[in-house]
Amino acid sequence: MSKYRVEIDHADNSVFAIGDKAIASNIADSRSADMEAVIAELDKLIVLLDSYRADNPDSEAIRVSAKRAKKARKELASQEPNPALIHRLLANIYEGVAGVDALVDIVSKLQALISHIF
Q1: Please, what are the averages of pLDDT over each run of 10 residues along the chain (118 residues)?
Q2: For the chain, what are the domain ranges?
Q3: What's this model's pTM, rounded to 2 decimal places?
């Protein structure tokens, strides 16, 4: 058994490993970057939904999808996002935008990104 003396002044946003064959990994930073990518894509979707809704004011499915996208955005930005809720919202949005290829593509991409995070 090896003995180590370790002194750490400041460890915020740091990754370190101590011990024989220790490996340092910063999963939180990776997840944070992925989450930022998801939020950016969700922001794009919200803009497109709002634009599509302005051109098609009678589309109830698009109105509901826009509302759900904003709820998903809020949930993702929360301290402890609920993965089941986010998956459900995205599935419902996907159904609501069926037939609008540009929107379907973004929702599909979001679903894939979310699957890697949660």
Answers
A1: 68 67 62 86 96 92 96 93 96 96 95 90
A2: 28-117
A3: 0.73
